[in-house]
Amino acid sequence: xxxxxxxxxxxxxxxxxxxxxxxxxxxxxxxxxxxxxxxxxxxxxxxxxxxxxxxxxxxxxxxxxxxxxxxxxxxxxxxxxxxxxxxxxxxxxxxxxxxxxxxxxxxxxxxxxxxxxxxxxxxxxxxxxxxxxxxxxxxxxxxxxxxxxxxxxxxxxxxxxxxxxxxxxxxxxxxxxxxxxxxxxxxxxxxxxxxxxxxxxxxxxxxxxxxxxxxxxxxxxxxxxxxxxxxxx
Length: 233
Ligand SMILES: Nc1ncnc2c1ncn2[C@@H]1O[C@H](COP(=O)(O)OP(=O)(O)OP(=O)(O)O)[C@@H](O)[C@H]1O
Ligand SMILES: [Mg+2]
Description:
By secondary structure, the chain is α/β, with parallel strands linked by helices. 39% of the residues lie in helices and 27% in strands. The protein has helices at residues 40-48, 70-75, 93-100, 107-120, 122-126, 137-149, 167-182, 194-200, 218-223, 225-231; strands spanning 2-11, 14-24, 29-33, 53-60, 63-64, 78-81, 155-159, 186-191, 203-208, 211-217. Strands 6-7-8-3-9-10 form a 6-stranded mixed beta sheet, sandwiched between helices. Strands 2-1-4-5 form a 4-stranded antiparallel beta sheet, with helices on one face. It starts with a strand and ends with a helix. The mean pLDDT is 95. The protein binds adenosine-5'-triphosphate (ATP) and magnesium ion. Adenosine-5'-triphosphate (ATP) binds at residues 11, 14, 16, 34, 36-42, 83, 192.
């Protein structure tokens, strides 16, 4: 479904990705783990088109998508839930969700998709008129994911969905990620919470200073000595 080959990305003169190779097959949960500043978010931004790539290629469903702007990758079915959630704080839950389906004109379809989101996140339905910015961290994460689901994406990219959340909420979020995947959505999950991410992932990649250092099955990486020392200590 998605193939990154030798991707290089820069911020000005700083090289953040130094030739990244990642494959995501349809139906998989793939996780990308690594420490602060390793290049996880930059990888997702390079895919969704928020950061330009200087070299390499990104192929999605057989189509070269490198350096396509973000609104185009969105329309191709790639949803990116950024680090830190970035919901619209002054808009209500309902309005935030509507923004997710900006390309859909049919009100009936928007309504159906919203009901689908409420199936995963019943709490959002209870809070439908509440302003996004007044929700708890966990609720905002659910709203950010709900907004992405309004696109009915084929590929859902999540950047540190567990960040700053209580263990019980993290548990819920990871359960929902598994459920979304069972229902056919391919997932690319960026996490610092390596243990939990590797537990739900089919495969994982470890990125270090802009380079992929290790890759393998989720269960193999959990057992890997290097991974244990660096990320699961
Ligand atoms: N807007 C920016 N301008 C300049 N440098 C940046 C910018 N964003 C990221 N970088 C640099 O690019 C590198 C990769 O950053 P990136 O945000 O992808 O890391 P990350 O793995 O997501 O880290 P974290 O776990 O802290 O979110 C880092 O060295 C970072 O300092
Ligand atoms: Mg990041």
